[in-house]
From TrEMBL:
Belongs to the ABC transporter superfamily. Coiled coil: none annotated. It comes from Aerophobetes bacterium. This is ABC transporter ATP-binding protein. Transmembrane segments: none annotated. Signal peptide: none annotated.
Length: 286
């Protein structure tokens, strides 16, 4: 579905993406993780035909994003972090504007909207001004808009940033349904539990380079299923083990404050990048 070959993007002396090679399978949910400034947004902009690469190639469903940008735009639906919807228009009118940009007929837009209303929870509110929607409702409208022209690839840049926990999990279920309907999903997130729950595979990028690739379980097992949080004269750190028995042997006879627990994806991220995955903002949208 997506093939990225030797992709590099330079901004003067800064290498934002450094020789990235990656393939994303059809109907896969792919989580793209990395610290701030790692190259995630630049990669998304290139996939979305908004930024030209310095070198390398990106193919979406066989189409080169540089040579065939107009065709690629028909293949993708893009959801950015910002809410770029018209608050004065109703939800349906926002969808109509988008559909017309893709040269869809009004009858086709209406039919597709009816289909999407079975997927998203806006049936009662689709004819209300979008400016009166809650944050979660606006996000669902943006997702519906991105799906209106039947894209094969849905690109989502932090799809649940700023949403409360309940709404976030609602969006998670929606993303799963979108995949089950046949779409491929490529998303970034600062919520590690989101990546762990949603992703069939995860790619971790740091300083423009892909440093890890695999399913969440595979990445965790590469380090060890059991994590031990230790704090001693060396400071806080994490040690990894394959079994709790191995962890117990390590701690036996050692006077340390330690917590034994199951390894998670954030442990892997910290070990690889030296940084935590933190949301940009914990503020909830109203």
């Amino acid at each position: 579905m997506v093939k990225i070959k030797n992709l590099t993007k330079r901004y003067q002396n800064i290498i934002a993406v450094n020789n990235l090679n990656l393939e994303i399978k059809k109907q896969e949910i792919f989580g793209f993780l990395g610290p701030n400034g790692a190259g995630k947004t630049t990669t998304i902009r290139i996939l979305s035909t908004l930024t030209l690469p310095t070198s390398g190639h990106v193919y979406i469903n066989g189409y080169d994003v540089v040579k065939n940008p107009i065709r690629v735009k028909k293949e993708i639906g893009v959801i950015h972090q910002t809410h770029n919807i018209d608050p004065e228009l109703t939800g349906f009118e926002n969808l109509v504007i988008h559909g017309l940009l893709f040269k869809m007929k009004i009858s086709e837009i209406k039919r597709k909207t009816e289909e999407l209303l079975e997927l998203i929870d806006l049936k009662k509110d689709i004819n209300r001004p979008a400016g009166k929607y809650s944050g979660g409702m606006r996000r669902q409208l943006i997702i519906a808009r991105a799906l209106l022209h039947n894209p094969n690839l849905l690109i989502m840049d932090e799809p649940t940033a700023g949403l409360d926990v309940y709404t976030r999990r609602k969006i998670w279920r929606l993303i799963k349904r979108i995949r089950n309907e046949g779409s491929t999903v490529f998303f970034t997130t600062h919520y590690i539990e989101e990546a762990e729950y949603l992703s069939d595979r995860v790619g971790i990028i740091d300083k423009g380079k892909l440093i890890a690739l695999g399913s969440p379980v595979e990445l965790i097992n590469n380090f060890g299923k059991v994590a031990v949080d230790i704090e001693d004269f060396q400071g806080p750190r994490i040690e990894f083990f394959n079994t709790r028995e191995d962890a117990a042997k390590f701690l036996s006879g050692i006077d340390k404050n330690a917590i034994v627990r199951t390894t998670n994806l954030e442990d892997v991220f910290i070990k690889l990048t030296g940084k935590r995955v933190n949301p940009k903002s914990d503020q909830k949208e109203q």
